[in-house]
Amino acid sequence: MNLKIAVLSGDGIGPEVIKQAVAVLKAVAEFYNHTFEFEEGLVGAIAINKTGSPLPEATLNLCKSADAILFGAIGDPKYDNNPDAKVRPEQGLLDLRKELGLFANIRPIKVITPLIDKSPLKRNVIEGTDILIYRELTGGIYYGEKKLSEDGTVATDICEYSQMEIERITHLAFKAAQTRRNKITLVDKANVMESSRLWRRVVKEIAKQYPKVTLNILYIDNAVKQMILNPNQFDIILTDNLFGDVLSDEGSVIVGSIGLLASASVGTKYAMFEPIHGTYPQAKGKNIANPIGAILSAVMLLDNFGLNEEANAVRRAIELTLEHNIVTPDINVVRNFGTDHVGETIVSSILNNEDPNGYINLENISIGKSIFF
């Protein structure tokens, strides 16, 4: 298969983790005889610094010409600490989602067996957890009209949804449920929010078209509790932009680190794949960021194009790497493995198609030297 992949590394640790994801995709291409072409584009704070825009036209055109987009992270503390900034890095991501029509964000929350004891939750609570969150991505309060009074004392963010916006992601979620456990949980706040009441009416009507799928409904305040108390009750969670943002980040508690979580943002024409963590500026340039979320995003990219054997090979390589405790400090602060160590081990496992024990010098890697004999 020939694929053109736009690489938008962004800010903070984005370039470090995306470098490892690209390396994994190159290894897959080499082992399975594919051709993956990578082209880089600017987005976020680095794009503002170089062009004045968080989403330069050249980057948008690159994304529109690519088969898929691999995205890192955007943001910079100098903008976070400046409430008066007129242009912000995050606008680049919001504009990109809108321009490409990426209306559905799909976020897996799945326990990785070798790391099950790294979660702060008990093993018997989280074992077997496998959740897909379908988060609406281009509507709601993040895109609604925003106002600030002239004296700066009153702020307004409008949450607005149309029936069409709700329908299109709902159909995606129900179709996905038919390939899993035939269960969907709608999360809303219909007791107080008119937009949630529209969500509930539309989703219940669409549910009639999928009689084999069971629809449950929870308020957001109950859902956040239930995800911690009994995550195995969920299969697919369907929700709006704001609630989906909250729930998917909460999922990092279940798996043990936000650095392990991937996502896909899809529309009718384009697809973008990104880890859900932020820029983590404190770790920038220190070779300590966890690349597995970015690598699992590359796995979702492979699955998106039907390259399931290749995707499963990467999943096996990740599990083997984790079984040997080759992990970054967010997983084990005692081990001395860097972002590049983890990435290189996964790459080597793919290329050798075997247990890394046979070709990795664990003594060397423990002191930060070359991982290879």
From TrEMBL:
<keyword id="KW-0560">Oxidoreductase</keyword>
<keyword id="KW-0100">Branched-chain amino acid biosynthesis</keyword>
<comment type="pathway">
    <text>Amino-acid biosynthesis; L-leucine biosynthesis; L-leucine from 3-methyl-2-oxobutanoate: step 3/4.</text>
</comment>
<dbReference type="GO" id="GO:0003862">
    <property type="term" value="F:3-isopropylmalate dehydrogenase activity"/>
</dbReference>
<dbReference type="InterPro" id="IPR004429">
    <property type="entry name" value="Isopropylmalate_DH"/>
</dbReference>
<dbReference type="InterPro" id="IPR019818">
    <property type="entry name" value="IsoCit/isopropylmalate_DH_CS"/>
</dbReference>
<dbReference type="InterPro" id="IPR024084">
    <property type="entry name" value="IsoPropMal-DH-like_dom"/>
</dbReference>
<comment type="function">
    <text>Catalyzes the oxidation of 3-carboxy-2-hydroxy-4-methylpentanoate (3-isopropylmalate) to 3-carboxy-4-methyl-2-oxopentanoate. The product decarboxylates to 4-methyl-2 oxopentanoate.</text>
</comment>
<keyword id="KW-0479">Metal-binding</keyword>
<feature type="domain" description="Isopropylmalate dehydrogenase-like">
    <location>
        <begin position="4"/>
        <end position="346"/>
    </location>
</feature>
<dbReference type="Pfam" id="PF00180">
    <property type="entry name" value="Iso_dh"/>
</dbReference>
<protein>
    <recommendedName>
        <fullName>3-isopropylmalate dehydrogenase</fullName>
        <ecNumber>1.1.1.85</ecNumber>
    </recommendedName>
</protein>
<comment type="subunit">
    <text>Homodimer.</text>
</comment>
<keyword id="KW-0432">Leucine biosynthesis</keyword>
<keyword id="KW-0460">Magnesium</keyword>
<comment type="similarity">
    <text>Belongs to the isocitrate and isopropylmalate dehydrogenases family. LeuB type 1 subfamily.</text>
</comment>
<keyword id="KW-0028">Amino-acid biosynthesis</keyword>
<keyword id="KW-0520">NAD</keyword>
